[in-house]
Amino acid sequence: MFSYQSLKIKLPDTSMGVYSWPLLYLLLLGVSLHDYIPWGEPNFWLGITALAGVITSSTHKQANNRFAYAALGFLVLYLALPAATFLFFILLCGFLYAVEVIKGRLPATVWVILFLMSPVANYAAEIFAFPIRLWLSDGVGWFFKKLDADLKIEGNRIWFGGIPFDVEDACMGLDMLVSSLLVGHAGLLMLEKNRQRRMPVIWLPLVYVLFFALNVLANYIRIICLVYFRIMPETLSHEIVGLSCWILYGLLPGFWLLKHLLHQVGHFEKVGQANAKPGIRKPQLYHILQVTLL
Questions:
Q1: What is the largest CA-CA distance in the chain?
Q2: What is the pLDDT of residues 26-63, one digit of tens each?
Q3: pTM (2 decimals)?
Q4: Distance between CA atoms of 103 and 281, rounded to whole angstroms?
Q5: Which of 47, 73, 198, 249 is a plausible cystine mate for 218, CB 3.0–4.6 Å?
Q6: Measured between alpha carbons, how far is 168 from 170 in angstroms, rounded to an integer?
Q7: Secondary structure of residue 163 in the 3-state scheme
Q8: Residue 158 three-state SS
Q9: Hey, how many other C-beta atoms are within 10 angstroms of the C-beta on 70?
Q10: d(CA 283, CA 76)
Q11: Three-state secondary-structure class, residue 165
């Protein structure tokens, strides 16, 4: 007679087994969406930086299945409409689902960062920036008329001294708007970690509006400087003036206001001191949901 005992298959609970899930998602992301991901765009790498800041500012709270359910929702959309955008969010949500098991609960700002670092954010910024570009052109015209300057406006084109200046996407919206929001996120995460205080979710829209408004102000001052001093595009002076205005009138006052806002409304929380250890405190159905996503 030959008897045997039923085999009980148990997935490894080692740290290497846990780290394999996020590494697998990163590998799939790079291979399957190599042509979709904007590797050469600064905003994508700013998003990676902000995402890394979110991961390091995780809390001691236990992970749940929210990212898995989000990934499954995008999976349903992908099966109905196989667009690269849905696959992008499937893999990123799966990655963050695995990361939460290792690091602990991630802050709510990660959802906004996921959107901002995706190519979808660039399309949205381009659409919403068009009326703002027209408003900026009118605002610059009003300023120079107060100076009795020889200036004419045609749509988003400004004629000053017979020289045309176009208020294009690079001046407002596509690049600087998304960049401002991503840098604002990184600054908020840095302040939260240094001060061990968390910004309540209800105040986050005010943070976005703050950096959006300061970005518009920085671009307004930038365009005035470029037109007044007749600094043409694709020159070193053009880039220096743009970055200087962005830092002086967009980022610095934004971080100063953000610091005071966090001091007033932030609540104490152990930010960046997660005690979740690899291989333990997994949410229910963790491996089942991971295999389902794959």
A1: 106
A2: 999 999 998 898 888 888 888 898 888 888 877 667 77
A3: 0.78
A4: 11
A5: 249
A6: 5
A7: strand
A8: strand
A9: 19
A10: 22
A11: strand
> Collapsing DSSP states into helix, strand and coil, what is residue 167?
coil
Contacts of 98 (CB under 8 A, 6+ apart): 18, 21, 22, 25, 290
Cα 275 to Cα 289: distance, rounded to the nearest angstrom: 23
**Nearest residue to 117 (alpha-carbon basis) of 67, 186, 65, 211:** 186
Burial class (CB in 10 A: 0-12, 13-18, 19+), 232: exposed
Q: What is the pLDDT of residue 293?
A: 80
The H or E element containing residue 98 is: helix 84-103
- In angstroms, rounded to a whole number, what is the distance separating the alpha carbons of residues 173 and 182? 13
Q: Rounding to the nearest 10 degrees, give the CA dihedral for residues 101, 102, 105, 111.
A: -90
User: In the block, which residue shows the tokens 């743009």?
Assistant: 242
Strand spans (E) along the chain: 151-154, 157-160, 163-166, 197-198, 267-268
Please list the ranges in the chain whose pLDDT falls under 70.
1-18, 59-60, 148-149, 155-156, 161-162, 167-175, 271-281
Compute how many other C-beta atoms are within 10 angstroms of the C-beta atom of residue 279.
17
Q: What long-range pairs does 238-243 form, CB within 8 A, spacing at least 24?
A: 242/171, 242/176
Give ∠ CA 24-26-29 in degrees, rounded to 5: 110
CA distance 112 to 212: 14
Place of tokens 């929380």: 269
